[in-house]
Specification:
Blueprint (H helix, E strand, L loop, with lengths): L1 E6 L2 E6 L13 H7 L1 E4 L4 E4 L13
Antiparallel strand pairs: 1-2, 3-4
């Protein structure tokens, strides 16, 4: 089922599995990479990767 996900102010449309009530959702690697978010395991936060400039995570193939 397609859903719009908004995480840390970044948004994308992804195929999602519906969970039963009170289950904790898991955000996978592909949406994290697509949204430009990098998990900081030490501080337990999501780090925003740059969207502009030479160090952007966005690439054109």
């Amino acid at each position: 089922m397609l859903r719009v996900l908004n995480v840390e102010g970044r948004e994308g449309v992804y195929n999602c599995v519906e969970l039963l009530a009170k289950q904790t959702p898991l955000l996978g690697l592909i949406p994290l990479e697509d949204l430009g978010l990098d998990p900081d395991l030490q501080q337990q936060k999501l780090r925003h990767l740059p969207t502009q400039g030479k160090d952007t995570y966005l690439t054109v193939l």
